[in-house]
From TrEMBL:
The keyword Transmembrane helix applies. The lineage of its organism: Bacteria, Pseudomonadati, Pseudomonadota, Betaproteobacteria, Burkholderiales. Keywords: Membrane, Transmembrane, Transmembrane helix. InterPro entries: UCP028704_OpgC. This is OpgC domain-containing protein. The keyword Membrane applies. It comes from the Bacteria. The chain crosses the membrane at residues 12-36, 48-66, 87-105, 139-161, 168-187, 199-216, 228-248, 268-288, 300-318, 330-351.
Amino acid sequence: MNSVAGRSLDVDFFRGLVLIVIALDHVTGSVLSRFMLHTYAFCDSAEVFVFLGGYASAAAYCAVASHRGEQAAVWRFARRSAEIYRAYLFTALLMLLCGGMLALFDPNPAMLDMTEWRHFVTQPFDVLGDIVLFKRQPYLASVLPMYVAFALCVPLVVPLAQRSFSTALATSVLVWVLAPWLAFLVPVVHTQDWGFNPFAWQAMFVGGVLARLYPVRAEFARSRSARWLTAVALVAFVAFAVARLVVFKDPLPGVMKQQLSLVRIVDFAAMAWLVSVAVRAGWIRAIAARCTSVVTVGRTGLVCFVAGTVISVTVDAVSRHGTLHGARGLVVACAGDAATIAAVIGVALLWQRMAVRERGQRLGSHARQAVRRMLRA
């Protein structure tokens, strides 16, 4: 993967693309969402997001450990876990506020239940306490508690994977197999309502870690075995797409996503190999170089995810067009998609500009202090 300023341009592009897709997927009636992974595959953007999270975490851990030592890397991910936890609390509160706004202007019963607004109105302190303890995870905030745990586990997982690929893989597979029975350890009020069993989804995160630590060798990528693997992956991808489009047209059972079913893993693995071929060929890098705004979204991932939750709910409420049909309904849906994409990119660009300004102010302050010390000397 190509690195730009210490980061992977390919990974940042994919992360930005996935964050935009996640926002679109949670807008009812989105036109673009109909062309996303969940339409023609048994997996969706969640697998990509978690896999890339593992890949980026392994890269960050190794970079910090090589420059500042293992202890610094451990503290880096402890702080990262705390950052994600704060983002989770903030997102949960935003979802409650969105629920309150929906109750006033767009009383959608299903959405109100997902935001926990109904329970908050009757038992505010109990609900807030449950949110702090992860027992209630309002709507789009539900993926973040899993990342809190994953960030804490990075200092354990990465060194284990560095010592032994097979041990790390076998341990992850074992935990994935036992995940349905380990689910009781997750502190949630209604087990059937949460979308991600972290004991199952760690398999996707660890897969990303292993992909970063053990990249495909150049000699293997040019070998006949790699070409056969590409052919098999392509056949599998097409077969899954046909099955999803022709046979399994209805929404898939939620338990398949909750427990990260084997068919989702295999389907994702086939697509991941095909994408890796495109990355090695330089095609993704060429696209990313022309889509700098999407790359910026990927580089401000946590901020864009939190903002995207509010953007999704807001656009969904404003552009809801259940009574609109034909050309008018299509125009409203397309306008909602455009507004969602523009808002996510706008947040990323604004945040990047603020970060650059803050760094400039810090550098200016350090320079002034250095000049003062020189004058005193």
